[in-house]
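Ticket #4471: structure export looks truncated?
Reporter: QA, pipeline team
Priority: medium

Steps to reproduce: submit the single chain below to the structure queue and open the exported record.
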Amino acid sequence: MIDQETTGKVAYPVMFLGIVASWHDLGGRPGGGKALARLAVAAHPAGWAPVLSAVHFVRQYPGAALPGAVEFKTDGRYVVLGRRMDKGTFRFDGACGQSRRLNRDRFRELVRYARQH
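Actual output as written to the record:
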């Protein structure tokens, strides 16, 4: 994907690599529901994302498990495939997509590779 400068998904044309600076619960029931993560973007190999990007996601309720769900954690490193929404925030491809948490070494590797291409 990085070599081709595209995500390969029409619905999610932007790919970026970032570290979660903070996240905020947007209300609803305690312990889960809608939330917003703010990521410090290190690279955007496909499309464009501002240096500090906001991504909407759903926090899992305690005791609930959704296989493959991505839940953003502070200081976590992520690759995100998303689409820009009206207010400049992003909606990401969720549990069924290719957004995921990365370990530190893999994150550095992908950022370095994205900056070279």
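Status: closed, not a bug. The export was complete when the record was re-opened. Leaving a note from the reviewer for reference: The chain has a mean pLDDT of 88.
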